[in-house]
């Protein structure tokens, strides 16, 4: 499956509170899709942040009133983009995604324009090398950050590690990295600095060029030998982590073991972590 649909949104008339109009939808696999929506003129955010988005819920059988059904979604597009992009899993019995997966260009979604999050440059102390560690849809905030010029200005090397079950689930990230490296506007903006970005995809359930959980490859040191780089150190390295609870817990232990401390907006340090949207 690889449908890509776009629509002219000029005729769309908003009817929901905080409504935005879907401009394109792309289905990557049976489990994954991405979509773009109009951006509220007043919305300012930092690349890597998330917002609450959703649809109107079913009316309450007693009162007949419907409430918005909202979930936290990382904005996958960079802060400078005219539209907002999201990357989502489809959960067959998930209250929101069972319906959201059927959106079409021209449809409306609810978007609360209050961006927040810790996967932002402000939550890290200055460093030389930046690691992005993602599983599944956890790549979304990094899809934003690898299109953010500050990422390339602040670091000498940026390494995006993405682990998925199979090759098809890596495609969103693979295409994105290719796009970032070849896009005319990114070339004009960043030129040779784009060479700082390296991509390290792995699969765990389908054979591919690189197999294994990123956590195992980190512990064994294979990650560093394959990339031909020095191991992670708190003096030079900064990391952002976004994935399942399991990944986040394991990565915290590994990074703390290497001497990195968890940062926050109010107290920047060497790494930051956030849970990827799962339901
Ligand atoms: P695995 O196949 O070994 O479970 P999911 O699609 O379930 O969200 O998983 C996305 C990817 O994250 C899968 O490749 C999965 O590997 C991997 N993963 C799940 N838990 C962890 C963890 N604790 N550490 C590292 N990778 C993990």
Can you offer a commentary on this structure?
The chain has 279 residues and is of the alpha/beta class. Helices cover 23% and strands 30% of the residues. It has eight helices and twelve strands. Strands 1, 2, 3, 4, 5, 6 and 7 form a seven-stranded antiparallel sheet that branches. A five-stranded parallel sheet has the order 10-9-8-11-12, sandwiched between helices. Strand 11, helix 8 and strand 12 form a beta-alpha-beta unit. The chain is globular. The structure holds adenosine-2'-5'-diphosphate (A2P). The site of adenosine-2'-5'-diphosphate has 14 residues, from strand 9, helix 6 and helix 8.
Attribute tags:
279 residues, alpha/beta, 12 strands, 30% strand, binds adenosine-2'-5'-diphosphate
Q: Cα-atom Rg, whole angstroms? A: 19 Å
**Mind summarizing the main beta sheet?**
7 strands, antiparallel
Strand/helix succession: EEEEEEHEEHHEHHEHHEHE
Separation of the first and last Cα atoms: 22 Å
Structural class from helices and strands?
alpha/beta
- Ligands bound to this protein structure: adenosine-2'-5'-diphosphate
Instruction: Report the mean per-residue pLDDT as an integer.
Output: 93
- DSSP strand tally: 12
Q: Number of helix segments?
A: 8
Uncertain residue ranges? none
Strand content: 25-35%
Percent of residues in helices comes to: 10-25%
Report the principal-axis shape: globular
